[in-house]
């Protein structure tokens, strides 16, 4: 039952926070601040919607962290087997995979940001 309440709470939280972010970015003061920091594209409905999605993804990530440790189907071994260098290489490869995933997420965000900027430049050229 506790899991259902937690799920519902995070769902409502993500919807409310997403809507608050969207309204804050599209408001007159929000657009003014975004213009001053060099991100006027987030002041439009499309940009605010994308920012809202990113906030919701952040809340989903926080929810996944709050779940606690997952139950293990296979029990862990008390002592890892194999030579020490094998364990070190395995740990290093896991760290590289995690770093690669983080760098990929950052590069995807930058790519999406550049695509959004190009789209708004084209819209600005059509209007003028």
Write up this protein.
- The protein has 128 residues and is mainly α.
- The longest helix is centred in the C-terminal third of the chain and has 44 residues, at 84-127.
- The chain is built from four helices and no strands.
- It has helices spanning 2-26, 28-37, 45-66, 84-127.
- Helix 1 packs antiparallel against helix 3 (45-66).
Euclidean distance between termini CA atoms? 57 Å
Shape: flat
Q: Could you tell me the radius of gyration in angstroms? A: 21 Å
Biggest β-sheet description: none
Q: Report the helical percentage.
A: over 70%
Class by alpha and beta content: mainly alpha
- The low-confidence parts are none
Count the E strands: 0
């Amino acid at each position: 039952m506790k899991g259902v309440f937690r799920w519902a709470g995070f769902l409502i939280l993500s919807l409310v926070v997403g809507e608050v972010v969207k309204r804050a970015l599209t408001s007159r003061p929000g657009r003014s601040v975004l213009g001053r920091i060099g991100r006027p594209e987030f002041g439009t409905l499309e940009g605010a919607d994308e920012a809202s999605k990113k906030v919701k993804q952040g809340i989903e990530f926080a929810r996944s962290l709050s779940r606690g440790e997952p139950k293990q189907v296979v029990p862990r071994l008390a002592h890892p087997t194999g030579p020490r260098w094998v364990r070190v290489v395995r740990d290093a490869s896991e760290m590289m995979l995690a770093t690669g995933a983080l760098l990929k997420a950052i590069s995807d965000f930058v790519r999406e940001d550049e695509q959004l900027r190009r789209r708004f430049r084209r819209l600005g050229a059509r209007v003028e």
